[in-house]
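Researcher: Here's a chain I'd like modeled. Treat it as a single chain, no partners, no ligands.
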Amino acid sequence: MPSLTAEGRTHHYAEAGPADGPPLVLLHGTLGDQRSFAAMMAPLAAGGRRVLALSLRHCWPGAWEEGGDFRIATHVADVAAFLAALGRGPADLLGHSRGGHIAFRVAQQHPDLVRRLVLAEPGGERDPSLGGAPGANAQAAAFAEGARLIAAGEEEAGLRRIAEHTGGPGAWERRPEAQKAISRANARTLLGQIHEARRPYARAEAEAIRAPTLLLQGAETQPAFVANVTALAGAIPDARVVVIPRATHSLISEQPEAVAAAALAFLAG
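Model: Modeled as a single isolated chain. Structure tokens:
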């Protein structure tokens, strides 16, 4: 498994495409790891890019039992260090769900490291400046319930709760076994994620994004993700939206070739 050491930490990743191709770094979501993008690696690499799917701190092949924090700020700093250590100048960044939130923060806080930005149904809440309800955080409540079940030894029930929050009733049962296995391998990271200190998106933050941005949305996704995509697309100065047919929030595994095609067309532009 390839790895890169940046600021004293070893970062594990999966890689595809030519080593001298322009770098495209992929960031997974909650309960995921580098394997979450397995079906997208070859289609993305076919565009001539060096594709690197990063496993975030404590996610497989790491483990939450290693200890330490699981905060958004920590993962943003890790990704920024990884991008800088590549030594190739600004990279393209694609994040899904929680990874989309992290990608947004990297582009906001480290604009010199990001050339173009792809946000696939970025997760999180919006503050009132972007149409969110004051103090609303339905996601935090659902994730806290899932973490409580996992901590109590009811792992399958906890994972089902998270899947249904993001994908609706029956989402866990509809997932392929390979995707379920990734969630099980990362189940205990949820015990850290409930303390991640994720801020809601704010209009001023979105307006500060300087990287051209593509927002991807599944045609059959949950309303909360549609609201995030719509609000961010309306606030980021150079943003566009592509809707992926026959896809829910799990669009990167349900329609990997369509997602890859949309991303490559945008990145080439």
